[in-house]
């Protein structure tokens, strides 16, 4: 009886030790990835790393960047995964991101990564803007298909255009930055003033203008090309237009807290397996060996704006201050 009791106690102790050895560790990951992608990325990572669980904290790029800056002295994130390169450059300058060399770095496209020698962020994919044009609404209002940015300032489009507020949306900020960097500041601000005359409203989400165009709430949404592609594939009556100088950014990963579990999240996020998930939505990804044509995605490479991500990060506060003073009155209320 005594021997049996000892064996039972020993078995219970071993089972408890085994359970504890496989207890999952939570890693808090701040992101601006589209909401419908989060479960897919989390499940794939946790399938390969059953001892680590991702705890997502998600918001739009502008809001997530502001949150990280506000928490600078008491960071709550351990990893930032899926945030615009310009924001990552700013976070690095502010000392929020740690210098780190992930496993598999040599397989990544360097043009999407931190260009400085002490690298702290690495591109998962490149995301692009597009003009989402609702063919049915356009026919109702006799609106011609725009083919250039200047076309959008024509009086015929008055009240028919939505675009993201750059202060709360990285999608909006990258297009404003593309105009500023490629038109020159004076011409770009004049352009945005003329465009504002035709704007119905500014959204706080980068994908929302295209969603609204797809639903017929507006005729035109300056928005995420990936969202327009998805909606078009699902049957929305959209034509995607990519004028010369279309805004784009690297969507990147970086380390906030220097611990082993957080490093494993960063390592996995730049892996070939992770990039094979990114390519399902984005036509340009960080891994050199991952390529795939994305159905209905416009040909963006010939019209990509020249983008300086470090400059975008450095000038962000002043650009957003100026933009908000000029145009914020048309922004939708924050939910």
Automatic annotation (TrEMBL):
GO terms for molecular function: thiamine binding; thiamine pyrophosphate binding. It comes from the Bacteria. GO terms for cellular component: outer membrane-bounded periplasmic space. The keyword RNA-binding does not apply. The keyword Isomerase does not apply. Keywords: Signal. It holds the Pfam family SBP_bac_6. InterPro entries: ABC_2-AEP-bd, Ferric-bd. Residues 1-23 form the signal peptide. One of its GO terms (biological process) is thiamine transport. This is ABC transporter periplasmic substrate-binding protein. It comes from Psychromonas ingrahamii (strain DSM 17664 / CCUG 51855 / 37). The lineage of its organism: Bacteria, Pseudomonadati, Pseudomonadota, Gammaproteobacteria, Alteromonadales.
């Amino acid at each position: 009886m005594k021997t049996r009791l000892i064996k039972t106690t020993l078995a219970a102790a071993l089972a408890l030790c085994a359970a504890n050895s496989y207890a999952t560790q939570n890693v808090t990951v701040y992101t601006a990835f589209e909401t419908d992608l989060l479960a897919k990325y989390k499940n794939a990572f946790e399938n390969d790393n059953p001892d680590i669980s991702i705890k997502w904290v998600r918001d739009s790029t502008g809001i997530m960047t502001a949150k990280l800056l506000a928490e600078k002295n008491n960071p709550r994130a351990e990893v930032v995964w899926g945030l615009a390169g310009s924001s990552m450059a700013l976070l690095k300058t502010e000392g929020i991101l740690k210098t780190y060399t992930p496993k598999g770095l040599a397989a990544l496209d360097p043009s999407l990564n931190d260009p400085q020698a002490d690298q702290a962020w690495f591109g998962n994919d490149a995301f692009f803007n597009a003009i989402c044009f609702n063919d049915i609404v356009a026919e109702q209002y006799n609106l011609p298909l725009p083919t250039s940015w200047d076309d959008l300032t024509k009086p015929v489009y008055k009240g028919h255009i939505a675009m993201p507020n750059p202060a709360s949306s990285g999608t909006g900020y990258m297009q404003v930055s593309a105009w500023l960097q490629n038109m020159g500041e004076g011409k770009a601000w004049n352009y945005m003033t003329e465009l504002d005359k035709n704007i119905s409203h500014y959204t706080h989400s980068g994908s929302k203008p295209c969603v609204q165009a797809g639903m017929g709430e507006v005729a035109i949404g300056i928005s995420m090309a990936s969202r327009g592609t998805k909606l078009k594939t699902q049957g929305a009556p959209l034509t995607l237009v990519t004028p010369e100088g279309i805004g784009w950014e690297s969507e990147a990963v970086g380390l906030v807290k220097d611990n082993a579990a957080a490093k494993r999240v960063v390592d996995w996020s730049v892996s070939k397996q992770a990039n094979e998930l990114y390519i399902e939505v984005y036509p340009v990804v960080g891994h050199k060996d991952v390529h795939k044509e994305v159905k209905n995605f416009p040909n963006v490479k010939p019209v990509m704006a020249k983008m300086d991500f470090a400059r975008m990060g450095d000038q962000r506060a002043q650009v957003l201050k100026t933009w908000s003073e000029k145009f914020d009155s048309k922004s939708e209320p924050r939910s």
